[in-house]
UniProtKB/TrEMBL annotation:
Necessary cofactors: heme
Protein name listed in UniProt: Cytochrome P450
The keyword Oxidoreductase belongs to this UniProt entry's keyword annotation: yes
Top-level taxon in the UniProt lineage: Eukaryota
Cited PANTHER family: TRYPTAMINE 5-HYDROXYLASE
A Pfam match: p450
GO molecular function: heme binding; iron ion binding; monooxygenase activity; oxidoreductase activity, acting on paired donors, with incorporation or reduction of molecular oxygen
Organism: Asparagus officinalis (Garden asparagus)
Family: Belongs to the cytochrome P450 family.
Assigned keywords, A-Z: Heme, Iron, Metal-binding, Monooxygenase, Oxidoreductase
UniProt-listed InterPro entries: Cyt_P450 (IPR001128), Cyt_P450_CS (IPR017972), Cyt_P450_E_grp-I (IPR002401), Cyt_P450_sf (IPR036396)
């Protein structure tokens, strides 16, 4: 029992860190390609956290725009392109489609996040689309299901979001970021490697400059 419990915890931790690292890379990629969004995100967090030299947990809970940035990234680049498959227990009809019993069903959240019938200008990275809305990633809003929903939803949802928010906040608070000299936005490879997680085909390379006003303090 102890061994199986440890294995379960290990599997959850590995899965959480793998998807989290992929999401962080996509967030930083989109921010590097959209300097206006990057500037707005940094201004929000630096105003809230002040120049005390660190970002605290209480500060992170107040970062509304950063949360919108993460949601928009998860919409365009969900950690898992397909949710864990479901199997219908009995004959049913969903949106006019007849689904026989014992049919295995895959939910394509990658396609849902880019569906023009759901999202205006779906291929545009626009965190402002979430401002003033209650749309969240907890599985209650079917247009945004990066972690699934219901009893089969990802158990690491809260852990993943907390990790991404904390890491991103500290990266953006302490450092200024830009593309390498001679590299334009159009040069950045946005292709994906489809597998268990949706990762960038080409690793992101950015130049980080430590911000003197918001540097580390003991």
């Amino acid at each position: 029992m102890f061994i199986s419990s440890c294995t379960l915890i290990q599997d959850m931790f590995i899965a959480g860190t793998d998807t989290t690292s992929a999401t962080l890379e996509w967030v930083m990629t989109e921010l590097a390609l959209h300097p206006r969004v990057l500037k707005k995100a940094q201004e929000e967090m630096r105003q809230i956290a002040g120049n005390k030299g660190k970002v605290e947990e209480n500060d992170i809970h107040q970062f509304r725009y950063i949360r919108s940035v993460i949601k928009e990234t998860l919409r365009l680049h969900p950690p898992l392109p397909l949710l864990v498959p479901r199997e219908s227990m009995e004959d049913c009809v969903v949106n006019g489609f007849d689904i026989p019993a014992k049919t295995r069903v895959f939910v394509n959240i990658y396609a849902i996040g880019r569906d023009p019938e759901i999202w205006q200008q779906p291929l545009e990275f626009n965190p402002e689309r979430f401002e003033g809305t209650e749309t969240d990633v907890k599985g209650q809003d079917f247009e945004l299901l990066p972690f699934g929903g219901g009893r089969r939803g990802c158990p690491g949802n809260s852990f993943a979001m907390a990790t991404v928010e904390t890491a991103l906040a500290r990266l953006l608070y302490h450092f200024d970021w830009k593309l390498q000299d001679g590299v334009d936005a159009g040069d950045v490879d946005m292709s994906e490697v489809f597998g268990l997680t949706t990762k960038k085909r080409t690793p992101l390379i950015l130049v980080a400059t430590r911000n003197q006003e918001f540097g580390f303090k003991a």
